[in-house]
Amino acid sequence: MHRLSTAAAALMAFAAPAAADITIAHVYGKTGALEAYAEQSHNGLMMGLEYATDGTMEVNGEKIVVIEKDTQADPALGKALLAEAYGDDDAALAVGPVSSGVALAMLPVAEEYERILIVEPAVADSITGENWNRYVFRTGRNSSQDAIANAVALGGEDVKVATLAQDYAFGRDGVSAFKEALEETGAEVVHEEYVPTDTTDFTAAAERIFNAMDGVEGEKKLFIIWAGGGNPMGKINAMDPSRHDVEIATGGNILAALTAYKELPGMEGATYYYYEIPDNEVNDWLVEQHFERYDSPPDFFTAGGMAAGIAVVEALEKAGSTDTEDLITAMEGMEWMTPKGTMRFRPEDHQALQSMYHFRTEVQDDKDYGVPVLVRELGIDDMDIPVRNQ
Questions:
Q1: Where is the Leucine-binding protein domain positioned along the sequence (predicted)?
Q2: pTM for this structure?
Q3: What b/e sequence results for 140-164 when a residue is b if at least 16 CB atoms lie within 10 Å of its CB, and e otherwise?
């Protein structure tokens, strides 16, 4: 009798499925033009999962397994890899990508497979706007958040603005949102310049901007929206825009790009993150651990990746399962703590509402870059971010 019972128990144990892992796909441009951003995003994602699970990398009694897929900043490849993650790898949800163009190609895949895609850190408004679907959530800020924060910092009566941006979704959506936000301040965009993403010589574009600005009266600013290498700010500053009474302005950026800000003390703008600005326990942990592990401060996209990682764990815990409908219910309106403080997924479009920071550039002896010093925190309730998916 005992032998039969033991054999039956062994057979039942053999037949019972092992506890399933929760597979999360990070689909991002690990190589390519934005790989510096991508590395930060991945490090932040892993630190966020670690922080939110108290180091266990488990949620609801199941192990979190992160798989990486490199889009190489190619929209077609990103689309195929996300389908592979959902279909072949059975990923419960995915995070990424870095590029707005890649993100826009990936959105329909989330809808086709009816799986969650948490967009981080791609910025274009259209991701949670006209191209959005109900399976898409974004922890990263959108172009409107950038634009409204920068409009608050730069706008005002009699302010005339020219813009320079990259000629793709990130740049064009950014300028469109910035123009709309500036109207509320009394400022006016008088010239727009778009150049290819791989541009390195900005002489012709700058001359067109200066010629256009020479014909206007008022406080004249050149607002630059740029991502990746070849940042034009330093090169245009070397052309002495003050000869045309033009001041350069821009939003925040990664630490490597802030070296150009050192030549522009007193420049104002708005930033998504700088590690010395937020004052909360999550950011304290991130800063301490990042210095310990990488001997450097966390950057823009490290903070964003961490926000996404924490959101993943919070959503899974709140839903109690990996079922997509349960996750959507859990995530709509969800609030969670991040290195930037509280974020909230807006139910209407799943955009994460979050703080932005009005800064003024300051030169400090111990920094080899221009430091964005806080002027004012713009909280969730300080910015009226348009819903653009309707």
A1: 22-362
A2: 0.89
A3: bbbbbbbbbbbbbbbbeeebbbbbb
